[in-house]
Specification:
Helix content: 40-55%
Strand content: under 5%
Number of helices: 3
Order of helices and strands: HHH
Structural class: mainly alpha
Number of strands: 0
Largest sheet: none
Shape: elongated
Amino acid sequence: MRIACSAVIATALLISGGAWAEPLTPGKPAGVHQAQMGNKEWLVFGGVGVLVAAVLVANAGSGDHAAVTTQPVSVITTTATSP
């Protein structure tokens, strides 16, 4: 499981470009002000929309499902006698 998770994380880093990012130069701002001034709200709302759509698709069904039948369970107790 650890190997699978490590592979997924490494792939995500390579795809997002985080593994190839340039190091920050000392004494210069890290771009926080520029990131705060950007219009990235649509990413958040888009992610929420995709999540809602996934939940709706997962919960959608035909509604005509067969009734669940369970087998009856019987418990038999025995006593042992010693000779």
